[in-house]
Design brief:
Elements: E1 9-12, H1 18-29, E2 33-38, H2 41-53, E3 58-62, H3 68-82, E4 87-90, H4 105-133, E5 136-141, H5 154-173, E6 179-186, H6 192-205, H7 211-221, H8 226-230, H9 238-248, H10 258-268, E7 280-283
Parallel strand pairs: 1-2, 1-4, 2-3, 4-5, 5-6, 6-7
Helix pairs in contact: 1-10, 3-4, 4-5
């Protein structure tokens, strides 16, 4: 399928590593010119070089989106790189583990600034030129925790809920402009760190065989054998152990793949997705048990 992304210009925030990096690479593969964003110059340059080495176009925009000044610099740099931005993927964000035994309001405010207000800053700078051209994509990366809150990571889940609300409001506010806004909400995704962690557990539990079998056993048995798998309550308290177990358990019996998230983001970024607007699309294997 031709996604018709040839000649489009994209900014992917937080794309110097992880899912953001994979999104940037995928958009470039489809023909888009991509601005790689991050706070670590060496990592951002590495990703941009990988894109240009593949024959596509890339530029780098460095800055902390948690400040007005640096967010403005990132937006200005991105627009200057290719003469404008058609697609924004708001992927940058942070998280921390918190507990209701001692919530920290200052940390909540800081995380809200990093995960939500930063998105507002980016949109504020880049939306006017999209509206002027009559076409644009604003894609926010959410989380299953926005719809299925956990006992821990409460602040993070609340910021992702705000992102979903922000996106729907944005879609309504952009009615008939040609600019759409959507949220993509992943569940657990198999990153190199998670894969290494599962393999370590598999070795300790004596789980052998192909990766598919190890993964199946991990997802199926994680909750039932929680104490023996990840240690006593001094390592992780009961609430967090339950949270982690429930987050990995889903009807597909496995963990998501980065490319499964990336493929959806790339499609939503394309002209093929013109009629998808204001949506929160989950890529979580059925982890969130809701009807919408």
């Amino acid at each position: 399928m031709d996604l018709q992304l040839e000649g489009k210009r994209a900014l992917v925030t937080g794309s110097s590593s992880g899912i953001g990096e994979a999104i940037a690479m995928a958009l470039a593969k489809e023909g888009a010119s991509v601005v790689v964003h991050g706070r670590r110059e060496d990592e951002a340059v590495r990703v941009a070089k990988a894109i240009t080495d593949s024959g596509a176009s890339a530029a780098v925009a460095l800055g902390d989106l948690a400040t007005d000044e640096e967010a403005g610099h990132v937006a200005k740099t991105a627009m200057a790189a290719f003469g404008g931005i058609d697609i924004v993927v708001n992927n940058a964000g942070a998280y921390f583990r918190d507990e209701w035994t001692d919530p920290n309001p200052a940390r909540w405010l800081d995380l809200y600034n990093q995960n939500v207000v930063s998105v507002v800053r980016v949109i504020r700078h880049l939306l006017p030129q999209m509206k002027q051209r009559g076409w644009g994509r604003l894609i926010q990366i959410g989380s299953g925790l926005a719809s299925a809150p956990a006992a821990t990571f409460a602040a993070y889940g609340c910021t992702k809920s705000a992102i979903v609300n922000l996106t729907v409001s944005l879609a309504k506010g952009l009615a008939r402009t040609g600019v759409t806004a959507n949220t993509i909400s992943p569940g657990p995704v198999l990153t190199p760190n998670i894969e290494a962690w599962i393999k370590d557990i598999a070795g300790k539990k004596g789980w052998h065989g192909e990766w598919a079998e190890v993964e199946r056993r991990f997802v199926a048995e994680f909750f039932a054998n929680l104490e023996s798998i990840i240690g006593p309550q001094s390592v992780l308290d009961l609430a967090e152990r339950r949270c982690v177990a429930e987050f990995f358990e889903n009807p597909t019996g496995r963990i998501g793949r980065v490319e499964e998230v990336v493929d959806l983001v790339t499609f939503i970024a394309s002209p093929r997705a013109n009629y998808i607007n204001g949506a929160n699309i989950r890529v979580d294997g059925g982890y969130v048990p809701t009807t919408n």
